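Sequence only, no structure available. Ideas?
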Amino acid sequence: MKFKDFKKSSIYIIPNLPSKEMKRYKLSLWRLIGYLTAYSVSLILIVFLLFTFSPLRKAIFWVDNPQIAQQRQKIAKLETQVVLLTKELGKVAKLDRRLKYAIILAGTDSLDSSAAIYDTLKSEKIKNKMDGGSILFVAEKFFKKFFQADQKENGFFLISPVKKTLIIKEFEPKESHFGIDFAVKPNTEIYSPASGYVIFSGFTALDGNILIIEHKNNFRTVLKHCNILLKKSGDKVYQGELVALSGNSGVNTSGPHLHLELWHGDKILNPREYLIK
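Reply:
I predicted one. C-alpha cells follow.
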C-alpha cells in the first residue's frame, strides 16, 4: 500500500452494544490522530494544573526518597537545637544583667548598703540546688539545729575561707567597712565559705580580683583582693572547696589580706556572726 492510499484510508468504530440497531462511526486517519493529540494535551494540562495549584502537589513527595528523609531528620534536629539554644541565651542574658550590677557593687568596700543598686542583685531561687560534697556537708546537717536558735536565717552558717589566721579588721558599717578582713600571706588558699554558685569572677580596679558567690536562701558572699581566681562565673562550688589564692590586688588595699562580705538580699550582715567558732 502506498503512503498516498494510506492517508486516504478511514477507520470505522463499531460499538458492541446490546441493542438492535448497530451504528458505526467513520473517522479519517488524520481526524483520529487529531482527536488523540487533543486528548493527550488536555490530559497533560489538567494533571499539570492539579499538581501545581492544588494540594495534590504534595503527593509528589510521597515517594520514599532517602535524601529527602535525611534532610527532614536534619531539619528536625536543627529545630530542637534552636529551641535549646534560645532557652540558654535567655539564661545568659539574665545572668549578664545581674553581673553588670555585681561589678558595680564590687567596686568598693564602702558603698552605702541602702543604695538602690543592691535591689538589682536580689537573687532568684535556683531550682534543684544541691549542697554538700564533702564532710562539711554532713557537719552542716548535724550542727544545723544548734545554730538555728542564734541564727534565724534557716540555719545558714559559714566556715572560715582561710585557715589559721586572725581577723585584723571587724565589721564596722558605721565606718563604711561592710565586711571583715583576714590577715593572710600572698597566695594563701581561699575556700568557699558555703555552697553555692559563682555569679561574678573577675577584676575590678578598686578591689582587684574578686569572687561573688550566691548561696541558698538568698545569701551572698564577696571575697576581695585575691591574687588568683580558680573559679569562673556560673561554676557550682561546695563549702570548703578551694576557689582562689589570696593577694593584694586592687587600689583599695594597704597590704595582703582577704576581705569577706556577707549579704542577705539587699541587707548587709556581719560575717563573724555566721562563722563557725
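The first strand starts at residue 10 and ends at 13.
Hope that gets you unstuck.
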